Amino acid sequence: MESSSHRITQIRVRQARLVAQLGIDVLRLGDDVGSQKGMLISPALWRKWLKPKLAKVIDLAKKTNPKVFIFYHSDGNIMEIIPDLIEIGVELLNPIQPECMGPKEIKRLYGDKLSLWGTIGTQSTMPFSTPEEVSAIVKERIETLGGDGGLILAPTHVLEPEVLWENILAFVEAIKEG
Question: What is the mean pLDDT of the chain?
């Protein structure tokens, strides 16, 4: 009898093949395997159970369409598996949450192999900073992370209702000035 995990992997592989054949630009994958303080499961278990399935999907998509860009999403601190993600073909990591992972450290360690998406905290900067602080943080991220490309500067998640409109405007204006 076939396991549900195996059936899901087969479905994901067929989906990856189909969308790659259709000529998509980006394949978005993800598992949400991180918490604020670290992995939700041990890296060893992730490597045993999730990495091979993810690698199979990425490999098939790349064989079908070598130009497809591989996007991976996981909230939280997943520092321990970033090298594994790069190894199996992930090219864009989302989100880079400054509340639990250091954007500068990730850029220093992996910036030549991985594009970063996020770095503007939705648990910190956007709801709790002044517009001037938002602007300063955005400009600092552009300066320290964006100089050689590989940065999609964005809030790390949806903006909740308590985020001041002035902070959103400060974010946009700082990017324009950036």
Answer: 94
